Amino acid sequence: MTRVVVTGGSGKLGRAVVRDLDEHGYDVVLLDRVPSPDKPERVPFVRIDLSDYGQVLGALTGIDDRYDRVDAVVHLAAVPAPGQVPDVALITNNVTASINVFHAARVARIKNVVWASSETLLGIPMGEHHPPYLPVDEEFAVRPQSSYSLGKAVEEEMARHFTRWDPELKMIGLRFSNVMDETDYPSFPWDASPEAKTFNLWSYIDSRDGAQAVRKSLEAELTGFEAFVIASPDTVMDTPTIELVERFVPDIERRTDIDGTSSLLSSEKARELLGYAPEHSWRDHRSR
Question: First and final CA of the chain: distance in angstroms?
C-alpha cells in the first residue's frame, strides 16, 4: 500500500484529497497545524509546523508509533490567498513551507511530489491583466500579480531545478482554480454580479474533482516537472460564456469556439497526460 503524506489535509481541498485517497486504498497521513473536522478514522493526524525544516524532515522520514517510510507527498498547506496576512509574511510562509517539503522529500528519496500551485499564475486578476488568448492554458509564461502568486511562481521554478538535479523525480504543480464544495453552491449562479468573478474568468473547481486530479497526478507515469491547469469544465454562471467574453474581455484572441457555459480555463493538458475527468458541477446541487 502506498503511503502518502498530505500537508494541509485539514483545509477545504485537503479534506477532499484525504477522503479520496483513503477511499482508493492509499495509506494516508494528515499533516497540519490543526486537526481535520471530518477525517476518516483510520487516517492519523500529526501536528506540524512546516516552517521548521527539522519537523518536515522528520515527518517525511518516519514518526514513532505512526510510520517508518513515506512513498509520496501531497503538499497543500499554505496561506490560501493574498490579503490574509501582510504580503512579505505570506510569501515567506508559503515559500518556506514549500522549500522545506521539497528539500526534505529529496533527502528522504521520495520521487513523487504533487503540490497546489494556482490559477493566479495565469495573470489574475484577469479583469486587469488580460491573458494573451482564450481559453487560458499552460503555454504562456507565468504572470504573477500578487505576493501569493509570486510565491507560486517561485515554487514552480524551484521544482524545475529539483527535477533537473534528479531525473527520476516527478514534481507536479496543479494550478487549481477557485476551490468550491457543496457548502458554497447555494450562492450560485453569479449572474446577478458577473463582475465579481471576472478576476478568474468565472471559473472554479469542485473540491472532489481537485482531489481526483491529485490522485491522477500521483499515479501518472511521468518524470520531471509539469504544471497543469485544473478547473471545472463549466463556469459559475448561467449566462453563456461567449456573452461574458464579449461584454468583459472582447479584445482577447479566441483560439477555439466558446460554447455554452464552458470554462475559459483549459484543463485539456491534464485530460491528456493525467486522465483527469471531472465529474462534479455546482449545477448538480441547484435548488429544485
Answer: 42
Q: Which residues contact 94 (CB under 8 A, 6 or more apart)?
A: 78, 79, 148, 151, 152, 155
pTM for this model (two decimals): 0.97
- Confidence bin at 288 (pLDDT 50/70/90): very low
The beta-strand segments (E) located in the chain are: 3-7, 27-32, 45-47, 72-75, 112-118, 133-134, 170-176, 179-180, 205-206, 224-230, 253-254
- Angle at Cα 33 formed by Cα 64 and Cα 113, nearest 5°? 70
CA–CA separation, 11 vs 33, rounded Å?
10
Q: Which residues does 52 contact at the CB level (< 8 Å), separation at least 6?
A: 100
Q: How far apart are CA 125 and CA 144, in angstroms?
A: 9
What number of residues does the chain have? Answer: 288
Buried b (16+ CB within 10 A) or exposed e, 271-286: eebbebebebbbeeee
Residues 282-287 have a mean pLDDT of 88
Residue 260: which region, alpha, beta or left (left: phi > 0; alpha: psi -120 to 50)? left
Phi, psi values for residue 94, rounded to 5°: -70, -45
Residue 175: all three cell numbers together? 494550478
**pLDDT value for 128:** 76
pLDDT in tens, 15-43: 999 999 999 999 999 999 999 999 999 99
